[in-house]
Structure prediction request, 135 residues.
Amino acid sequence: MLGKASDLSGFAAQVASEGYTGAVLLGMGGSSLAPEVLSRTFAVAEGALHLRICDSTDPAAVRATEAAVDLERTLFIVSSKSGGTTETASFHAYFYDRVRERLGGAQAGRHSSPSPTPTPRCTTKPWRRTFAPSF
Prediction:
């Protein structure tokens, strides 16, 4: 990922400049553990997005994540090693629907719809870009 560091930093700066204030990582197990440890270990840098992790299928935890963020100013990061994790796909569908409901009308049509199988794509916010590491 070192080769992608510049792209990732640029992307983070771009979304912050567009008014995003937070990010929610949607993932389970290994896809969420390292980000959770790092977010608890390091303070949020000035001007950076505040990161939350959604990795519990408990409906109350999912609703608490939703209540804690401004859906219009939050970047959602769908993280799945296999690309087929049911829980992560469910998080994606849930938050996609919430953002779409919030934006409503003509705005909602600008966003790509969730796909049953993950496909890298570049679209308009909030489902805008996929960074796939090559190992």
Q: What stands out?
A: The chain has five helices and three strands.
